[in-house]
Amino acid sequence: MPDNFENISGKIRTPILEVRDLSVSFHLLEGVIPAVAGVDMVLNQGEVLGVVGESGCGKSVTAKSVLRIIPCPPGSIDSGTAMFEDRNLLELTEAEMEGVRGNKISMIFQEPMTSLNPAFTVGDQIAEVFRFHRGMKKSEAFERAVEELRRVEIPDPAKRARSYPHQLSGGMRQRAMIAIALACRPRILIADEPTTALDVTIQAQILNLMGQLQTDIGMSIILITHNLGVVASIADRVVIMYAGRVVEEGTIDDIFACHHHPYTHGLLRSVPRLDRPSEDLQEIKGIVPKLNDLPRGCAFSNRCDYVMEQCRQREPVFKPIGSGHKSRCWLENRPW
Amino acid sequence: MVSLSEKKQGYSGEPYLSVTGLKKYFPVGRRSLTGKGAVVKAVDGISFHLKKGQILGLVGESGCGKTTTGRTILRLIEPTDGNIVFDGMDVTHTRDMKALRKKMQFVFQDPYSSLNPRMSIFRILKEPLDNFMGHMSRSDKKDLVVQTLQTVGLTADHMGRFPHEFSGGQRQRVALARSLVCSPELMVCDEPVSALDVSIQAQVINLLKRLKQEYNLSMVFIAHDLAVVEHLCDPIAVMYLGGIVEISPKEELYSSPLHPYTQALLSAVPIPDPVLERQRKVQLLTGDVPSPLNAPSGCTFHPRCPLAGEECRLQRPQLVEIRPGHSAACFKAASP
């Protein structure tokens, strides 16, 4: 799979999407939940950016805020900018946003059953994209939809276009979702846990397909996942999130071989690995804190093995520790 | 409590749990007048033996029948055919299932739906004691509940709380405590870690490892994640479409898998290390898992198998021991 991806590290990086200081909160009965607190994220042309973190760390909220599909209320985007093609996505009107969503920036979701409309055929749902964004006639759009299904390697696409989502298997539905998302050849694809609901053999097929299509179309991908194996197999750069913050950012080699943040370290050591059999798993102690009840100072301080006095006082700054490698930690050197 | 008449005379007691020719067919749709309707062969003739203190890993993709197998062993679902012998007692035909249930416990996948939201943790843990150990005094029960909570890493303070106050990992600990409280000898765990985040998953895996040693438990551990199974189980059985295709000691299964399905499954697991990922060769399987409603003729894997020949289409291969303790249901593996 990795051979399908050009190594971009040698090339000049041109940012295509720049998220700066994004803060999103949800106003719920139990209080204000700061789901995303000052996230900076840059996606470069032609790269796959992996966004990794556990549930509730704000990875999906960040992506959905960029597309402005956060339900407001209860959600609200409190601050930040998201620059795409010289425009701030967070300030566009709803009509302007409609020209971006599904056209220039597309998203695929984790659960392909709930994100497809059960009342329409798969072909109609792909055709809708062409009719909306390209103003095509119904019959022409449907023909293009069949083409798109062929492109995502669905066998017998003409027949499958007339199927309803419930008639397809999980892997096929995810392929149909990809077909919808890529119909307009977007510049950015946001894939939110695209393979989490799928079996490993199907996951391998979908990742392979995404890799091929990425090189064909020349798009950039934001891959949101909690699976470090998936990230290692297709990402170029990785962003690690914890409690609504980016805690570490770097190329995959930075993150896997010389990570700096104790959370990244803990995450990597807690994953059972097939290539290191029977090694004892190192757990991260404690539980993920509630977002409206974070420890003082560093959000990870109550679970960190290397916690120091200043960690409990002040939140660390997100500082560079190498070229393109940044970490939000007070530690000067890696203790491991 | 178990009547002696149910103990098979002269039974050596060597395999602790012994399952032979287990079948579970679910009727689908309306039955015709002849009483014969379509059936889904969820489990179609599987056999395995488990020694005391072993953890058998049951791996497979969704819909392969692993959960049905687990539930049928405890007769949460009545088997269609086959024999289950546990500790010398015939589970399939016993009339005193209650006495057996004390010794055989089940842990469910989803800790959010398997704990009654209206019961406090104390009541949840006391219920099995009321059920199986009626003779105990209330204070003894309370002591035992506290002790069990401590074994799973919770404290006595948690007793008065309700499930919604706990995180996923803590709930799974409560579910484990509920199974452990009446000192079972066999536990069937149905994907107990797949709903948890990685850092929490490692905590629960380590806990299960420890419990197995402390209680000398035997377990059937159902999972889809091969890396998790590798860390916990020995031996391991791989299921595909209602049948076991390969069963083997742990080391051998991972180092030299015999069945082409196991080989593809193992190669599809991404490794969280970019350097190894670049070298990994994925054996992509074509197509999806067929529906168990109309399973393929002969070997159920033949439509997706790279090695399939004529005999695979016609005849169903039996599980044969190819190396000591290592069996596979494949004509090609048997005679390479």
Describe it:
The complex is a heterodimer of chains A (336) and B (336). With 336 residues, chain A is α/β, with parallel strands linked by helices. Chain A has a domain at 114-183. Chain A contains ten helices and twelve strands. In chain A, α3 (122-134) crosses α4 and α4 crosses α6 (170-182). Chain B is 32% helix and 21% strand. Chain B contains twelve helices and twelve strands. In chain B, β11 (320-323) and β12 (326-328) form a beta hairpin. In chain B, α5 packs parallel to α6 (198-215). Chain B starts with 16 loop residues before the first strand and ends with a helix. Residues 1-13 of chain B have low confidence and may be disordered. The chains are: A alpha/beta (336), B alpha/beta (336).
Shape of chain B: globular
Topology of chain B as a string of helices (H) and strands (E): EEEHEEHEHHHEHEHEEHHHHEEH
Rg on CA atoms of chain B, Å: 21 Å
Question: Averaged pLDDT of chain B, please?
Answer: 87
Number of strands of chain B: 12
The end-to-end span of chain A amounts to 31 Å
Strand proportion of chain B: 15-25%
**What distance separates the N and C termini of chain B?**
52 Å
Q: What's the tally of helices of chain A?
A: 10
Give the overall shape of chain A, derived from the CA principal axes: globular
Share of helix of chain B, binned: 25-40%
Question: Helix/strand-derived class of chain A?
Answer: alpha/beta
- Give the helices and strands of chain A as they follow along the chain: EEEHEEHEHHHHEHEHEEHHEE
Question: What characterizes the major β-sheet of chain B?
Answer: 8 strands, mixed
